[in-house]
Structures are given as C-alpha cells and as structure tokens.
C-alpha cells in the first residue's frame, strides 16, 4: 500500500495557490485493519463491523518540534502529536490508470478534504488518516497514514484542500 498527498493552500482574497506534494507513511495499525477487513466472512455472527477510513486530522506537532524541519513520520505513530482539527472527507473516489475518477472499483482511491476559512487555522506540520471506532472524534480511532511536513500556515484568509491518494 502506498500513499501520496497533494496539498493546495489557496488565499481566498488574492486567489494565489501554493501546492505541496509528498508521500506519507502507512502506519502499523493499518495492517491490522486490513486483516480485519479481509477476514470478514458473510454470516459470521462474531465478525466485528469495521469502519473504513473516515477522517483527516491535522495538527501543530510535538512540543519542541522544529516547524521547518519536523521529525520524519514513523510507522509506529498511532495519533497526532497535537491534533488541531479533524474532518470527514468531502469525497472519496476510485481513480483509473490515467488518474481520472472511475465509476467502477479500482485499486486506487482519492480521499479529498477541504478546510474552509473557519477550519484548521494554525501552523500545520502533521496530518493523518483515521478509521475505525470513534474516528470522527478528536484523538480517537485508528490511524492509517501519517505525514509530517515543513510548516504550512493556514489562516482565515485561506482554504486548504488535501487530496490523499492511496494505492493498494
């Protein structure tokens, strides 16, 4: 499994866009959730209902982090160091081999989240995808992917669009 990010910060007053791209870390818990999903047997009364990936959380990093050079993401991470805001996805789409939205199932999905001018304002240096039980609540759920980056200052004069692509 691989994850790629496209982050678009757009100033709503000037229309100027800043685009960042990068790769994220698939954390260890993701393997357990994938195993649970694959384990599912129709009619199994003991099967636990598994919530898929539901939210994107952004944060301001750990105490003492260098905001221009935060620590590299690790696969052992289970939550953000300092979660600022969490939101459900605006869209989840299958993506075809040409990079276009596909009406049929593929092995690639794009998870898109848009934070408007009133959401997630701050010095962002970390983000993660969350699923499972209570994943819509701050500091809850199971982290699937984790990403750290040099500080991205989101203010009330900007929208932030994050497109997180997962390839299986």
Plain-language structure description:
With 168 residues, the chain is mostly beta strands. The strands form two sheets. A six-stranded antiparallel β-sheet has the order 2-1-11-8-6-7, with no helix packed on it. The chain has a five-stranded antiparallel β-sheet with strand order 3-10-9-4-5. The protein is globular, with a radius of gyration of 16 Å. It has one domain.
How is the topology of this model organized?
Blueprint: E1 2-11, E2 17-23, E3 25-26, H1 28-39, E4 53-59, E5 83-88, E6 91-95, E7 101-102, E8 108-115, E9 122-131, E10 142-154, E11 158-167
Antiparallel strand pairs: 1-2, 1-11, 3-10, 4-5, 4-9, 6-7, 6-8, 8-11, 9-10
Note the main attributes of this structure.
single chain; 168 residues; mainly beta; 6-stranded antiparallel sheet
The SSE string, one letter per element, is EEEHEEEEEEEE
Let me know the average pLDDT: 88
Distance between the termini: 4 Å
What's the overall geometry?
globular
Tell me the major beta sheet. Answer: 6 strands, antiparallel
Q: Enumerate how many helices there are, as a single number.
A: 1
Number of strands: 11
- The radius of gyration over CA amounts to 16 Å
- Structural class call reads mainly beta
Number of domains: 1
Helix content: under 10%
- What percent of residues are in strands? over 45%
Low-confidence stretches: none
Strand arrangement across the biggest beta sheet: 2-1-11-8-6-7
């Amino acid at each position: 499994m691989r994850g790629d990010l496209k982050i678009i910060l757009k100033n709503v007053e000037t229309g100027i866009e800043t685009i960042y791209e990068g790769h994220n870390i698939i954390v260890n818990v993701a393997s357990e959730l994938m195993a649970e999903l694959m384990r599912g047997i129709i009619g199994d009364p003991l099967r636990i209902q598994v919530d898929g990936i539901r939210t994107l959380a952004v944060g301001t990093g750990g105490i003492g982090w260098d905001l221009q050079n935060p620590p590299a993401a690790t696969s052992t991470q289970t939550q953000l160091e300092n979660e600022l805001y969490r939101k459900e996805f605006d869209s989840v789409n299958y993506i075809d081999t040409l990079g276009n939205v596909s009406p049929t199932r593929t092995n690639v999905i794009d998870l898109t989240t848009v934070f408007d001018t009133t959401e997630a304002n701050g010095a962002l240096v970390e983000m993660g995808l969350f699923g499972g039980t209570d994943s819509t609540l701050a500091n809850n759920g199971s982290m699937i992917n984790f990403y750290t980056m040099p500080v991205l200052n989101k203010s009330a004069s900007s929208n932030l669009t994050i497109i997180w692509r997962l390839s299986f």
